[in-house]
Amino acid sequence: MEAVCPIDSQFADEISAILKPPMPHQVQEYFDQLTTTREIRGLKVRQNGEHGKGVYADVDFEEGDLVLKDQMLAGSQHSSNKIDCLVCSFCFCFVGSIELQIGRKLYLQDLGVSTNNECERKPFSHIPKETCQIDSSDGEDDSYVVDHRSSKEYGSSSSKYRTPLPKEIVESLMNGELVLPYSKQFPLPSVISCPGGCRESYYCSKLCAEADWDLFHSLLCTGARSKSLNKEALLKFIQHANETNDIFLLAAKVVSFTILRYKKSKAANLEKEGKCTTDSCNLSLLLEAWKPISMGYKRRWWECIALPDDVDCHEETAFRMQIKELAFMSLQLLKAAIFDKECEPLFSLEIYGHIIGMFELNNLDLVVPSPVEDYFLYIDDLPHSDKKEAEITTRPVLDALGDDYSVCCEGTAFFPLQSCMNHSCYPNAKAFKRDEDRDGQATIIALRPISKGEEVTISYIEEDLPFEERQALLADYGFRCKCPKCLEEEL
Ligand SMILES: C[S@@+](CC[C@H](N)C(=O)[O-])C[C@H]1O[C@@H](n2cnc3c(N)ncnc32)[C@H](O)[C@@H]1O
Predict the structure, then answer these.
(1) Which of 44, 117, 241, 256 has the greatest number of beta carbons closer than 10 A?
(2) Pick from 101, 139, 155: nearest CA to 373
(3) ipTM surpasses cut 0.95
């Protein structure tokens, strides 16, 4: 039976106001303000293009130039990736030390917590991989993506043939008693605990901890100082997301972000105007709180999700219904955990579905390269005698780590400006992390000279695929590409 959410009909007018695409002048105002406050130079968002919004160069860029660093609006690390990498829950930079990163991973591996990388995601975890910020397709310049695991130098164990380290060694790596040779060359920020007291979120600085608390986490924290309605319900919501699709954790962040913004502006209004408080929804405040999210391109998740390869097209309707039910189940759990009467329309399936659909349709992979990879490469590059000496300590560690000795931080995020970039199969820019890009911001680099006034385009898919395959993949984004390359190949 199809999932039916009563809030959808009860708040139909509010929901349609929230989901109504913003007017062109509102979009322009928002992006002009965003680029000014973030001091983004050389780019403009314009709406007069063929495909809705687009990003245009406002200066000339040379090949290899940094075009954009885009701070995410909301993002989260994949649940499965949390075993491999300990990162700041706000900016996603690696924290602690090389030893802590390694010791913690080995400890969790030994506990039997399964690692589950991008290729082995759960059945419902369907996010197009083609949009990955690490474009390893050309294998040339993506230095940190090179598969050093196959290197004969390490001649290493596959994950099946790991050689475990004694428990005491793993513990001494975690508690800092064992210092690996040359690891001081790769300093990481100290680990800051969650101000709410949960043991799931960690930070690289007090600033990040406070920002996360104010923007998202205070409602979603499972610690003693959480502001959630019901912590048990919250734990159930988190468990359901971890078992089905961790995109729900990100959707919850968006809901929490909007509620917290609403509360803040309501409190500011009260202070300014001294009006007495009511429990009813103030729609204009809710629309204002939702504004940053309203700028993202959205459709309902169950309608825009690409049909997985293993689902027969005859089963499409049943599949989409199942996805809708899954979203409804998640929403019910979230509602029990953080429901807010004044923001009730946000708990409609319509809005929840559109939030998740927004993550489905935009370019949103969050990737941060691992310093553990840099560390082992450094050891490998040492002069022979130094290397031999260092390897007395590092080789057993590497053998214990096995094939997956270093894993990037991976997740999903919504980048406000990158998500305005349209696709081309002959793009003039691409998402690419340089050596210095060590946090979750999206980085866009020019692939060739881009002249002032030209649209900045990226490829949502692997652009070297044959024409028909490209079009099939782009159909998942709801369009047929008519870029010069496609027009030429179509003939
Ligand atoms: C990430 S958004 C890009 C920004 C979008 N134009 C907007 O107005 O928000 C992706 C959506 O933009 C549109 N789009 C992007 N590139 C396109 C292209 N080359 N041809 C047609 N539509 C495109 C499609 O609707 C796609 O689902």
Answers:
(1) 256
(2) 101
(3) yes
